[in-house]
Amino acid sequence: MISSYIDTLLIGGPKPFRADGTQSAMAREAVSAPVMLRRHGFDGDQVADPSVHGGADKAVHLYPTEHYPCWTAKLDGHRLLQAAGAFGENISASGFTESRVKIGDRFHIGAALVEVAQGRQPCWKIDHHFGLHGLSREIIRTGRCGLYFRVIEEGFVAPGDTMQQAEAAPHDWTIARTFKLLVAGGHRAAGAADELRQLAKLETLAEVWRKRAAALAGER
């Protein structure tokens, strides 16, 4: 069972991101006081494009602190990696690596109860945020994607709060395995269709990823 604590809690809203008027909420800021976590995220936290970000299945974004040294070495000590929040996460914490956490695992964080819904699929905004072409592709290749929680029970959450696993999912669909199959090209492997059909029926998997699994299975 995973037991950890919140190293950093970050909240933010849309800010100017590109000269064409595009906005992003990726540049979140650390807070020091408790924040109410509701079904669609933390009070005061917003997304710039709700058509692809936010919603119940993406209420909270966590990125594992374990990945920061790897990226720091890979990206020559990029300035964004000097503090938590480089990947737009709400929570920076250790112990939640993709090979360890499963879809449907539940955790008490502060006074809230959350459930793992999916991994985080990177887009072009990561590249632009870092000023590095190909970073999103490297995240996909390495599987260092982070994860999203849905909120089962609302409650106040604060920096330093314990993150204690409340329930382990009764299967072996880790974030890493799921991400590889749906995002990193694993669906092209022989025998993948059966696994895709399994994922399409996994009720705790985010709806958009269940639909993706079903669509990929139908393409074969």
TrEMBL record:
PROSITE patterns: MOSC (PS51340). It comes from the Bacteria. Residues 29-166 form the MOSC domain. Pfam families: MOSC. PANTHER family: PROTEIN YIIM. This is MOSC domain-containing protein. It comes from Sphingorhabdus arenilitoris.
